[in-house]
Structure formats: structure tokens, C-alpha cells
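Contributing new records

If you add data, match the layout below exactly. Sequence lines come first and carry their own label; structure lines follow with theirs. Keep one chain per record. Anything else will be rejected by the validation script.
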Amino acid sequence: MTQPTGTTPFERAAELRAEGDRRITTAYATSQLVKLLQECDTMIESWHASSALYIKHPTEANKQEMETTLLIATEALKEKKATEAALVQIAMLADQLGMAD
């Protein structure tokens, strides 16, 4: 947390409030990105499960399920990579704003 530089109590309070707002916004964005990563992992795991089912029971229905989940998992993997990059950016910006402590 940085020390306020304002000269009046109101200026210092405004600076502390702004810093608190940045911290809350950063925490919320981080939590939303983590939830998105978990959803992506769930979709990718769904493809693994349907693939394993098709290997054990190679029916046409299982093949269709595997192909469908493969399309979803492919998009989930792309989204996961973008989300991980966004988390890195948030961490870097938080560090630059002095919120790494």
C-alpha cells in the first residue's frame, strides 16, 4: 500500500479510496479470470472423458459426442491461453501500481 501524498485529510482519504477501488477491481477481475480458467478445464476434461468412452465403446453416438466435445475443447483451450495471458497482464499492472504486497 502506498502512502497518501495529499496535504489535506480529504485528499489523503480520496487517494486511499482510489487505491482501495483499484485493489477491489483487481481482485474481482482476477477471480473472474480464475473462474473462466476452471470452466475451460472442465470443458477440456469433458473431451478427455468422451474420448476415453469412444475408445472403450466405438459407437457412432460416442464418436459424435467426442467430435462435439473436441470442438468445444479446442475453443476452451484458446480461451484458456488468452485468459492466462490476461492474468499475467493483471499481475504486471498490479505490481506496477504497487499492489504486489
